[in-house]
Amino acid sequence: MADEEKKDERSSSSNNTKNLIIGATGVALTAAVAGVAGAILANKELRKNLGKKTVQALEVVSKLAVRAEKEATAGLKYLQSKAQKEDKTLKPAPKKVTKKVKS
Asked: Where is this region: Disordered (predicted)?
């Protein structure tokens, strides 16, 4: 019976770790998309060469990516708190340290 409890505990910890990795990857990818779209939009030379529809699409993608990043970050924080409750060896989540780029 004790072996089954240990196995369940390890399985739960493994699932928490996998979920945290997936969540962190999602945050990183959405931040990258927002960054690339923002960088293209901020570059006046590139913006001139792009069509009006392309610029509009990039603006929409940038806004959606920023919103998705916020949602993914909130989900990741939830997963981290859940994992910490179950696995006391996990450290608390670091505070978000990002600089806002003025455009």
From this structure: 84-103
The contacts of residue 17 (CB under 8 Å, 6+ apart) are 83
pLDDT digits (tens, 9 = 90+) for 16-34: 778 778 877 878 888 888 8
> Is-contact 82 16, C-beta < 8 A?
yes
Looking at the chain, how many residues does it have?
103
Residue 19 and residue 83 in contact, taking contact as beta carbons nearer than 8 Å: yes
Look at residues 10, 16, 11 and name the one whose alpha carbon lies nearest to residue 82.
16
At 30-80, the pLDDT tens digits run 888 888 888 888 888 888 888 888 888 888 888 888 888 888 888 888 877
